[in-house]
Amino acid sequence: MSDADAPDQPLCALCERPILPGTPQSLHHLVPKLRGGKGGPTVLLHQICHNEIHASASEAELARLWNTPEALRRHPRLERFIEWVRKRPADFHSKTPGARRGGKRRAR
């Protein structure tokens, strides 16, 4: 199925491509739950787009700087990712390209 064949499908809040049935997807809390966003607004994303958001910014940065779809689309790494992923079919999925953001992660 091509992107043009999916006019009634929800759109990804990041890349704005249709989210086709069976395509990995998830809800993204615009303010991370651990930063006060529990119960706050969420947006539907392709899973690949959601993975890239969390690979691009820390939860503190997401809460403070990148807490709307419009802001996320202006993030320098996400701008490049969106340009790249928009050339793929709406049901495209792969591992998150590129390295995760720098910094140490705490053990869970």
UniProtKB/TrEMBL annotation:
Taxonomic source organism: Jannaschia seohaensis
Source species, domain of life: Bacteria
Q: What is this protein called?
A: HNH endonuclease
